[in-house]
Amino acid sequence: METAILGGGCFWCLEAVYRGMKGILSIAPGYAGGTVQHPTYQQVCTGQTGHAEVIRLEFDPSIISYAEILRIFFIMHDPTTLNRQGNDKGTQYRSVIFYENDQQKQIAERTKQDIAQEKIWGNQPVVTEIQPLTTFWPAEEAHFDYYARNPMAGYCQVIISPKVAKARKEFARYFSPA
């Protein structure tokens, strides 16, 4: 088992995208990259803690590699917008990869470079930060499985559902048939 810590805007969105993928063993929303110990959602939402909303993926690298997880990450959110994803604005919504070792750092840098060279997002520069992980703080229980528990909520319908549909189409090989 290995771990990946990713921030690409709202953690509800990323959690929903990776939910049900082959090789993903667990997903936890949380916070990383800031200075406040044991931050709360309310604190992080102010943008004053330095934390980003992130997910922690535990995965089986014999089924899905770290590089594949990162490629999905770069395609499923806009890595060219600084401190923003759609209407979500602030440093807490920044595009960031928190690595746990030198190998993850190298893979993250290479994948970011590949995405930029492939011009998947046009000529816009990829602004995703690549930083060492200091501490992952799990989010409050209400944020776990948010989309699965609230599929009819407005935000889920308008923002998350299209991302989930895109992931299941673009990366169908990673999902079991419905």
Task: Describe the structure in your own words.
Strand 6 (95-99), helix 4 (102-118) and strand 7 form a beta-alpha-beta unit. The chain is globular. Helices cover 35% and strands 22% of the residues. The strands form two sheets. A six-stranded mixed β-sheet has the order 7-6-1-3-2-8, covered by helices on one side. The chain has a two-stranded antiparallel ribbon with strand order 4-5. The chain has 178 residues and is of the alpha+beta class. Helix 1 packs parallel to helix 6 and helix 3 (66-76) packs across helix 4.
List the helices and strands and how they pair.
Blueprint: E1 2-8, H1 11-18, E2 24-32, H2 41-45, E3 52-59, H3 66-76, E4 84-85, E5 88-89, E6 95-99, H4 102-118, E7 129-132, E8 136-138, H5 146-149, H6 154-170
Parallel strand pairs: 6-7
Antiparallel strand pairs: 1-3, 1-6, 2-3, 2-8, 4-5
Helix pairs in contact: 1-6, 3-4
